[in-house]
Amino acid sequence: MQPDTVRAIRTRARELGLGAAAVIALLSALAIYWLAWGGGAQWVTGTIHALDRQVAANFWVAMTVFLAVCFVVQLFIVPTGTITMLAGGFLFGSMMATGIYWVGQLLAAPIVFGAVRMGFGNFADSKLDAIVERYLPGRFADVLEIARSEGLMAAISLRLAPVITSAVVPILAAVGGIRLTSLMMGSVLVGWVRPLFWSSVGATAHSVAEISSPSDIISKVSLTPILLAFAAAAVVFALRIVFKVRSGS
Predict the structure, then answer these.
(1) pLDDT digits (tens, 9 = 90+) for 6-39
(2) Cα(159)–Cα(142) distance, rounded to whole angstroms?
(3) Nearest 5°: CA angle at 50, between 104 and 216?
(4) 217-233 pLDDT, tens per residue?
(5) How far apart are CA 222 and CA 227, in angstroms?
(6) Residues near 82 by Cβ (< 8 Å), separated by ≥ 6?
(7) Where does the pLDDT of residue 103 fall: very low under 50, low under 70, confident under 90, or very high at 90 and above?
(8) Measured between alpha carbons, how far is 82 from 195 in angstroms, rounded to an integer?
(9) Which of 87, 116, 207, 241 shows the smallest number of beta carbons within 10 Å?
(10) What Cα–Cα distance (Å) separates residue 114 from each residue in 28, 72, 94, 117, 230?
């Protein structure tokens, strides 16, 4: 293939990635505005009530709608992930809700990752490399490349991090140079952990009202299990990087 053709393909891919990322960002911003000021919160409450009525009468329809909601929440980074998982646990039980949310996560992740990676991958790589080169000592010059080689552990750590919403994980992975295969493997291995935690909490709710206004139920939850799981993954990730840096590999 001719160099000009390769450059043209790369340019076209970057344009497509930028366009897709821009659409996702725009819809995410609109969703945040809608939830905060446009009546979105009331719509969420109404949808939970509607699904609650449909679970007994049309279970498969309700489950399909819930899967679509999980996919959209992940794809457009709508800040309703916790409520979605709580509602899923209340409506379908913790195990089924976890499975549905996990599938929605796996479906949305490669789309978001691909858009960000194609649009911003080279720019992000060059900026991160420049930061490492400028601020880290010479012996740590390869730390970023080593961290990227530990993409699976990085993806696992991101998926378990309690302060990073699951919808943002593909963006961080793409910007950080983690491979898509590592992201997806990490998502398969531990992407269900946080959904299981929150859907289990939702399964203990006594009414739709508790889910629609979840501040009380969330305030009673201990995040210790999630924090411990994240800490364990992060420590293993850090130790593997340190070991490789010291061994010069």
Answers:
(1) 677 677 777 787 788 888 888 888 888 887 788 7
(2) 24
(3) 80
(4) 777 778 888 888 889 99
(5) 10
(6) 198, 214, 218
(7) very high
(8) 8
(9) 207
(10) 17, 16, 30, 5, 25
